Amino acid sequence: EKGIEGLIHANRGRASPRRTKDSLRDTIDYLYQEKYTGFNISHFTEMLQEREEIFMSRETVRGILLEKGSYEKKKKYPKHRSWREPMPKEGMMIQFDTSDHDWLEGRGPKMKLIGGIDDASKDVPWAQFAYHDSVKENMAVLKEIVKRKGIPLSLYVDKDSKFITTRHGGLHVNIKRDQQKTQMQRAWDELGINVIYAESPQAKGRIERLWGTFQDRLISELRLEGVCSLGEANRYLHTLYSCPGTTKSSSGS
């Protein structure tokens, strides 16, 4: 018997039988650099499975790209946490906000993404792209949320001037007379929605993380599909992507 030393000698220099074939490794590297540029590893692995019929684990894909030099390990920094317990039941609170970002990366017009996320379930009842972050566009999104999910008990919003009356200089005032209220505030009153104003972006942690996920994953998919108009972007968001109803919460690199 050769024993352990003999086995080591016999296998020295041989590739592991489990090692992915070089041609497939080259294909994965090419797809990552040429077709799926900018995708994070988790998202890229999903695209390999869904669109290329290449099935392997995220870690295997990551290892191939690290070896090829196409991907670098990212430093992890401690995340700021402004912790608040989520609501216990769906429909108790919707975090409502707008994300101003270059969603089409110069291929089309500047757009805003307006939407909400359920504080308990983390589902996205509705979101849509718009040219402007106007009262009209915010009303349209709120109307769609109510149509699909019913009237929420409360909304969690920032202190934008369309949501709250302000004095000159940005000092917020207590609202006492109906005529002082914004159009959005009057609509909330009519619907019986309690409104809570966030003190900072960190306080709106769930929807800020949602925007981060969309800015990572959705932008990459819009690029992949060649989307270059507001109408195309909304059609993709509403028919092919996970919104509305649920979110692809994985945003791992």
From TrEMBL:
<feature type="region of interest" description="Disordered">
    <location>
        <begin position="1"/>
        <end position="21"/>
    </location>
</feature>
<dbReference type="GO" id="GO:0003676">
    <property type="term" value="F:nucleic acid binding"/>
</dbReference>
<dbReference type="InterPro" id="IPR036397">
    <property type="entry name" value="RNaseH_sf"/>
</dbReference>
<feature type="domain" description="Integrase catalytic">
    <location>
        <begin position="84"/>
        <end position="253"/>
    </location>
</feature>
<protein>
    <recommendedName>
        <fullName>Integrase catalytic domain-containing protein</fullName>
    </recommendedName>
</protein>
<dbReference type="InterPro" id="IPR047797">
    <property type="entry name" value="ISNCY_transpos"/>
</dbReference>
<dbReference type="GO" id="GO:0015074">
    <property type="term" value="P:DNA integration"/>
</dbReference>
<dbReference type="InterPro" id="IPR001584">
    <property type="entry name" value="Integrase_cat-core"/>
</dbReference>
<dbReference type="InterPro" id="IPR012337">
    <property type="entry name" value="RNaseH-like_sf"/>
</dbReference>
